[in-house]
Request: fold
Amino acid sequence: MDLLAHLAAFTATADEVSFSRAAERLGIAQPLLSRRIKSLEAYFGGQLFDRSRRQVAVTEFGGSLLPYARDVLERAERLGQAARSARAARVRVVGVPAHCAPMALAGVIRAGTEHGITLAVRELPPRQRQSALGDGSLAYALLRVAPERAALRVPLGLAEAKQPSRRTVHLEDLRPPRGAAGLPILTLEEDEVPYAQDRLGRATARAGLPGTLVGPAGPAAAALADTLAGRARLLCAEPLARQHGASWTPLADASLHRGYEVGASECHGETGSVPAWLAKTLAEAAG
Reply:
C-alpha cells in the first residue's frame, strides 16, 4: 500500500467533507479514492468516516488519527524538498581533456547553471577520465574513441612557427632531405592512448618517416615553446595552436584525428544518459 497516497485521500476527504470534491482535488477518480479510504480503514482497524449521514463526517476514531496523518504528509513534503535542494546543490564534476579553451569551459559551467545543475570541470588524461567515470569520481566525461565511431570528432593537425603554404598536411610530405635530421613531431598526453599511438606509428612508417622523429612532447608548455621557436612541430587541435599564436594545418589522414563520446556515470544516478545541451557545450570545449 502507498501509505502517503492513502493518507492524502484521508486528509483531503476530511478537508472537503466530500468524496467527490476530494477526488477532484487530488486529480483521481472517486472510486479510487473510496478504495483508498477503505484500505486505510482496514489497515488501521477502524472506520475513519461516518457514511450514514447525507454529508461525510470524520468519526471520533478518524479525528484522533487526522493530526498524525497531516504530520506524516508534511514531513514527507519537507523530505522531498530537502532531496530536491540536495540534488540542485550537488556539484557534478565533468572530466575534460587538458588545454581546452577557458572560455569554452566557462560555457559548460554557465550552461549547467542555466539548467539548474552545478558543474565543475577537471582536466584529466584520457585513461584517468575513463577510470574516474567508472568509480563515480566524475559525473560526466569526454572519452576517447576511434574517430570513425565517435559522436564528436576533432581534427588534429600540426602546429608550426611558420605558416605553411599547404591546406592539409600529409606525413610523407614531412620526410626530411637525405642526411637532414628533420623537425621532431611532438605528441601531447591526450593522444597517448593505445589505438591512437598504434595508428600514428603505422602512418609514420608508411610515410617513410624515421621512427625517432615522432614522440611524446612531455610538458605541454615546453613543447609549445619549442614549436614557437621553430625547433619542432606539435600534433594538436586547432584551438590550442591558435591560442598560443602558432600556425596550424590539419592532417589529411582523418583516421589520426581525435574521436570523443560523452559518458555519464551510473554511480551518480545519471543512468548513462547525457543531456543534449551538455554534449553540445562539451563538443565546443573539445574543439
Observations:
- The longest helix spans residues 60-89.
- The longest strand covers residues 258-264.
- The chain has a mean pLDDT of 90.
- The radius of gyration is 32 Å.
